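#struct-help
A.M.: can someone run this one for me? Single chain, 273 residues.
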Amino acid sequence: MTHTPPHDTLRHGALGLLLIGVIGTILYHVLTGAAAFWVPVTLLMALFCLTSSTQLIGGASTAVFFAVGVTAGLCFEALSIRTGFPFGPYYYTSVFGPGALGVPFIIPLAWYVIVYLGYTIANLMIRHEPVVPHGGISEAIFLSLMGAAVVTAYDLGLDPFMVRKIGAWVMINPGDYFGEQLRGFYGWTLVAFVIALIVRVSHIALPPRPPTRVTVLSAAYPVVAYGVWWVFFSTAGFPLGTRVIAMYAMGIPTLAAVAGLLAWRRAHAPEAF
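D.P.: on it. Structure tokens below:
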């Protein structure tokens, strides 16, 4: 049997507590309808992803991922608010609190969070392993596209919920998808792809270096986190029609990632819990 180092045990415990905090905050919203729940949820998810990423790809690669995700998220959001590219013209309300360049501070954090989850799920879906060192530009492009699709699947439930129920932002020209413009989803795919591709290409100069051997539990945490949002948007999404969409759009990559995780465990980590 292998033994988990004490610092890994602490990280596993921290991840579990953070995820419990996320679920508790979501339940608080479900029970009370509090619109501002997204702020603490995003902060908890950002801490969760930073801790998880440190376990999977190491501190240096995590710092790069965080910097790229937050910077690109802020730049593309600010660009779209001013020009309509790439999400369409919109503006944020006061629900998410203060920000910069018209973008609430938690929004760039949210970009880092969801792209990191999509990055890990794409690795498990396609390569059946949680950590994929740089394997060439073509593979980086393909995995980035897959991760971007996973991210956009999440947005199919998120955007209508945020506009129609939470009132977090206002679409200046409402579109055909529950009031959202279809171009917004193309924009999500583009931005998630750009962030993921930059990160994957950065692995050439800075290969992922997990601090210890990656365990099944470490690899499972990002899948569980994405799965939490799958369950949420499938049961509490709004308008109601988005629940069916989220059920399948988010459910397929979640289950495919679970299958990849089980295949990786059978092949490489039969005792790594």
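A.M.: thanks! The chain has nine helices and four strands.
D.P.: also worth noting: Residues 6-268 form one domain.
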